[in-house]
Amino acid sequence: MPYTVTDRVPTTQEHRVLAEAVGWGEAFWWESMPASLAGSTCGVVVHDDDGLIGMGRVVGDGAFYFYIEDVAVHPDHRRRGVGRAIVDALVRQVRDHAPGHRFIGLFATPEAEVLYRSLGWEAKEMLGMWQVLRD
């Protein structure tokens, strides 16, 4: 089945549908998602004839620091090159957006580690740390 890759940030509804499909429904504070998506540097959505099947986006300062976020592929479409197409499109968009040297980072789920390593990503000597601040 052919896929259509479109350079744009997913809508809030698209993001939620895919997040829930991959088990990330509780990972986001949905009230903040419209503003979060609007603050994205770039993004990509992937469709087939039946609808949305993948997404990803980039956040950062728009000049040097960029982070790939929310790469998700519907479980029915995994292992068909969709994740690779999403990451390739996001990296291309970063290259187009900020020529020269730039830092691109990401956090990978254990399931996605093989994909990212196959695309040339590697774990470095740094320790990734994070927390969610809740009020």
Automatic annotation (TrEMBL):
Q: Which residues form the N-acetyltransferase domain?
A: 1-135
What the entry lists under Gene3D superfamilies is as follows: 3.40.630.30
InterPro entries documented for this protein: Acetyltransferase_Butenolide, Acyl_CoA_acyltransferase, GNAT_dom
Q: Which PROSITE patterns match?
A: GNAT
Name the Pfam families for this protein. Answer: Acetyltransf_7
Q: What is this protein called?
A: N-acetyltransferase
